[in-house]
Design brief:
6-stranded mixed sheet, 3 domains, Rossmann fold, alpha/beta
């Protein structure tokens, strides 16, 4: 079964904790600190695999976690780094943050490999915190926390040209005749339940990629039928071949059908509706010579509006080569770059902000009170008695915006700041 969407949980590896230990050897009674650093946590990486064309691998497996880094050891031993986890997806996959729907990455074009979540850095061992006044530091840094996200994966096929039209107008037959694709063909609505891709080879290096977008129905732009499932696959195409049943073999009016499909495109995305479009009046092999020529009727209606109309037959091949060469030449005038989606969500920045909740308030006694779980954790592993440890904590307050918040509340030199029972005198 074709699968073009998935929702998964991803988590990078936590950094390994730094180690607290002291050198203990014979004849070295007062050995210094020798605690090693923790290893870096593994990254979550997405990579394009051109051998894949669906997201079916994510239908049953929903959680993907990189390895945490190992803690440091004695004798300055560095903890091993955690292994990265590499998730392989088909080209054209868009990764979105699940809650906001913002784009994290578009795995297409030159972007074939991207780190989505970075593993936490390993904590420093106590060997780094020795100073002239603190020669036996009994603390080390914990590793940085992991990052985690629920993301939506969405596959949008990459093709130069999209075949659009109502069900049973002959798109799959047309595709099978002009490309190397072998779509299943039958006479019932929603025959095609997955986009079919094929390469049109016109010889001498000329050609393009063609996608059969499954048949649309009225109301598709509002999600009727499988509308939204299919319309997303038109978003990357540079132009469209609008296939209609010129013979009206199922009792439909081809002119009315063209207007209805274009209206659905306009309601879904006006930018897509404005892209170049050529009309393929199909099934002319079913038009009887004594009848009114339906192709001329379509031409009279749409060519004044800027649409070229070609009379074709997917069964006999009539008119198809002229249509393909016209499309091929039109593509040369369009932007050669693939249509890609810009990044809107930056996990490293957004998750950092989300991971640092704190409150800064001024109480009735004029004391500035700063609280938050991250601050409590920081105080737990920082030696404020050492010059280096206090400088490290000050940098933390600055980087998280706490100092800016204090100044906004009017803190002045000599004011008292309290954090979880510890009191400090503010100075610049």
């Amino acid at each position: 079964m074709f699968s073009d969407r998935a929702r998964i949980f991803i988590k990078s590896g936590k950094g390994g904790d730094g180690h607290v230990s002291f050198r203990r050897e014979m004849y070295v009674p007062n050995g210094g600190p020798d605690g090693g650093d923790g290893g870096k946590g593994g990254d979550v990486i997405f990579e394009v695999d051109k051998g894949l064309n669906t997201l079916v691998d994510f239908r049953h497996s929903k959680k993907f976690c990189a390895q945490p880094g190992e803690p440091g050891g004695k004798r300055r031993c560095h903890g091993a780094n955690g292994k990265d986890i590499v998730l392989r997806v088909p080209e054209g996959t868009i990764i979105r943050e699940a809650e906001s729907g913002k784009v994290i990455a578009d795995m297409s074009g030159e972007n074939t490999r991207q780190v989505i979540l970075k593993g936490g850095k390993g904590g420093l061992g106590n060997q780094h915190f020795a100073t002239s006044t603190m020669q036996v530091p009994k603390y080390a840094q914990p590793g940085q926390p992991s990052q985690e996200l629920w993301v939506n994966l969405e596959l949008k096929v990459i093709a130069d040209v999209g075949l659009i039209g109502f069900p049973n107008v002959g798109k799959s037959t047309f595709l099978s005749r002009v490309t190397n694709a072998n779509p299943k063909i039958a006479n019932y609505h929603f025959t095609t339940l997955a986009p079919n891709l094929g390469v049109v080879d016109l010889g001498d290096g000329e050609g393009f990629v063609l996608a059969d977008i499954p048949g649309l129905i009225e109301g598709a732009s509002q999600g009727a039928g499988l509308g939204h499932e299919f319309l997303r696959h038109i978003e990357r195409t540079k132009m469209m071949i609008h296939v209609v049943d010129a013979a009206g073999s199922e009792g439909r009016d081809p002119i009315e059908d063209i207007y209805k499909i274009n209206e659905e495109l306009e309601q879904y995305n006006a930018g897509i509706a404005a892209r170049p479009q050529v009309i393929a009046a199909n099934k002319v092999d079913l038009v009887y010579s004594g009848d009114e020529d339906p192709v001329e009727r379509i031409r009279a209606e749409f060519e004044p509006k800027g649409y070229r109309v070609f009379a074709i037959s997917g069964v006999t091949g009539e008119g198809i080569r002229d249509l393909l060469w016209y499309v091929n030449n039109e593509l040369k005038h369009l932007d050669a770059k693939p249509i890609t989606f810009e990044q809107e969500f930056f996990p490293e920045d957004e998750l950092l902000v989300a991971d640092l909740p704190y409150t800064v308030e001024k109480d009735e006694e004029g004391v500035f009170v700063v609280e938050g779980p991250k601050i409590e954790k920081m105080l737990g592993y920082t030696n404020l008695d050492s010059e280096k440890g206090f400088a490290f904590f000050q940098k933390f307050l600055k980087d998280t915006g706490i100092l800016d918040k204090l100044e906004a509340l009017g803190v002045e030199e000599g004011d008292t700041i309290r954090m979880y029972g510890l009191s400090f005198e503010y100075y610049k």
